[in-house]
């Protein structure tokens, strides 16, 4: 079987080199959301202790004062 003919039938181009441009576009489509997810998760993890301290601060301020 001729791989070039098979690729032309499936992808519209007959050489692997021809697929590189579409692969780059596909990578960019999936890379940006993945990158944003990683950055968001790392920031969320890095600020975890700070979030806990802020939550405790506001909990103490809103709690009724002891008589």
Features of the shown structure:
67 residues, mainly alpha, 3 helices, 82% helix, 0% strand, rod-shaped
Structural category: mainly alpha
Query: What is the overall shape?
Result: rod-shaped
Q: Write down the overall mean pLDDT.
A: 75
Strand content: under 5%
Count up the helices: 3
How far is the first residue's CA from the last residue's CA? 89 Å
Radius of gyration: 27 Å
Q: Helical percent range?
A: over 70%
Run of helices and strands: HHH
Q: Would you write up a description of this structure?
A:
With 67 residues, the protein is mostly helical. Helices cover 82% and strands 0% of the residues. 0% of the residues are buried.
Task: Give a short synopsis of this structure.
This protein has 67 residues and is an all-alpha fold. The chain has helices at 3-11, 16-46, 48-62.
Secondary structure layout plus pairing:
Layout: H1 3-11, H2 16-46, H3 48-62
């Amino acid at each position: 079987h001729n791989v070039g003919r098979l690729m032309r039938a499936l992808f519209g181009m007959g050489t692997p080199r021809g697929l590189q441009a579409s692969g780059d576009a596909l990578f960019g489509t999936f890379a940006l959301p993945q990158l944003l997810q990683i950055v968001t998760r790392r920031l969320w993890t890095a600020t975890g202790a700070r979030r806990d301290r802020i939550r405790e601060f506001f909990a103490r301020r809103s709690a009724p004062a002891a008589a």
